[in-house]
Every structure is written in C-alpha cells, then in structure tokens.
Amino acid sequence: QVQLVESGGGSVQAGGSLRLACAASGDTYRNPYMAWFRQAPGEEREGVAGAYIPGGSLFYADSVKGRFTISHDKRKNTVYLQMDSLKPEDTAMYYCAAGAGSLGWDRPQTYPYWGQGTQVTVSS
Question: Residue ranges of the chain with pLDDT lower than 50?
Fold first, then answer.
C-alpha cells in the first residue's frame, strides 16, 4: 500500500506559477513510478509529468514541456510539480499517482495508488 497526500493547489493568473507537492509513504519501493495527472470537468484524466524514481528518468506531456518540472526529494519522499507560465487551459484537478509502471507512465491504468487531488485554477 502507498499513501499519497497532495498540497499546493490554488488560483493564479495566467503567466503565474504554482508548486504542487505529493508526500508519499508506505511501499514506495515496489511502486517506483510516480506521476502527476490532471482532469478538467468533462475531460479524460491526462498524464502531465512522470518520474522513474530509482533511475531519475523524467517524462512530460507535450503540452507542458518547458513549463512544468517534476522533481523528487528523496529525504522527504516527496514529489513536486513546479508549474510556470501557467495558462487557463492548465485549469484542472491535479492528482499524484504511484505504481509499478508496467503500462506506460502516462496511462492511468499504470497506477493503483492515487492522492485525493488538488485544484489548480488559472484565470486569464
């Protein structure tokens, strides 16, 4: 079992920045892939950024490359998503996920463990 607790969402104007945090606990050793997904109302859940924690590999959706950065603090066992140059289309509920990674970093089916979500709202 893995427990994930997100924090850091909020409201910001376009062009602004936010940093999300996901504190992980439990059996993270067996679930080395961690990712951030987002879901807007009426839309499918979309993979935003992912990381293979042991190897340091990072993955990004094309829509956020160059604007978002995923990172991991090993001491705190926390994954961060730094979001810069935010756009109104980034508005969504953001979720942290953990899993073994067998189906691809950006597929929700990869991840059996999810946080409760944190809302990000970007106004124009």
Answer: none
